[in-house]
Amino acid sequence: MPLHTLDSPPAAAHLVPSLETRELTIRFGGHVAVNAVSCAFQAGTLTAIVGPNGAGKTTYFNLISGQLRPSAGQVLLAGRDITSLSVSARTHAGLGRAFQLTSLFPRLSVMENVRLALQSRKKLGLDLWNVWSHHHDLSARAAEVLDAVALGARHEVQASALSHGDQRKLEVGMLMALDPDVYMFDEPTAGMSVDEVPVILDLIRALKKDREKTILLVEHKMDVVRELADRIIVLHNGTLMADGDPETVIASPVVQQAYLGQAPVGEAA
């Protein structure tokens, strides 16, 4: 049984979650990678999803964002069942995902990458010349986004020529341009230098101030989790084993056992 430690206020009981998974499950042959995970996420919160390597964190993300189709269960966005929708349809519905590995248009410039994200948001098609010659307001917005991710001075650089850290910044910028209702970050600081990490964390802090947005964060750096998270859910062997406020969850023996790679009490190692 999961260790549920987060007490929701009574007034929240009637609210429709911005995102919810119900009994979400995926099997690969005889292996259950995500096992009947039911979890609801409300606007105005940042939830960190943690667990040891192989716990099912990224697989759970892939099920939510549509990269994988579940063997059972549902994904709901603002009460709407989106389980059968494609990745692009989920994006248009308000679900935004930044990947552990960057997902960019490598041959386009930094500015053009953000412009395409803005086009997608506005459903303007993919003809850069026809669109951008007549939509100067969107060009201005693209410049604002690039300044926010500290890439304004590199707007003409080809995305493939950026350092890994700058590519991560660009991907966050593209996600900001999409302006989703739900932001999903899969280890956003992975592979970044110590000097580059603060820019990404500052961006997430800024996004968190918008109480209409929901943020999910897969992260293994517990100092980052402690600082940013309002709530932590813990996956272990694909199962939801803890859910609550950061201090209580991090201190719980069952979570510490999972991170140390030990079996919970009463189970064989």
Mean pLDDT: 85
Placed side by side, the strands forming the largest sheet appear as 1-11-10-4-9-8-7
Main sheet attributes: strand count, strand direction, barrel closure: 7 strands, mixed
Write the CATH homologous superfamily of the domain at 1-6 and 17-85 and 214-264. P-loop containing nucleotide triphosphate hydrolases
Number of DSSP helical runs: 10
Helix content: 25-40%
What structural class should be given to the helix and strand makeup? alpha/beta
CATH architecture label name of the domain at 1-6 and 17-85 and 214-264: 3-Layer(aba) Sandwich
**3D shape:** globular
The beta-strand count equals 11
Uncertain stretches of 5 or more adjacent residues: 5-13, 264-269
CATH topology of the domain at 1-6 and 17-85 and 214-264: Rossmann fold
Portion in beta strands: 15-25%
Keywords:
alpha/beta, Rossmann fold, 10 helices, 11 strands, 23% strand, globular
Structure description:
The protein is an alpha/beta fold and 269 residues long. It has a domain of 126 residues: P-loop containing nucleotide triphosphate hydrolases (Rossmann fold). Helices cover 35% and strands 23% of the residues. The chain is built from ten helices and eleven strands. The protein has a seven-stranded mixed β-sheet with strand order 1-11-10-4-9-8-7, with helices on both faces. Strands 3-2-5-6 form a four-stranded antiparallel β-sheet, with helices on one face. It is globular. The two termini are 18 Å apart. 37% of the residues are buried. The C terminus is likely disordered.
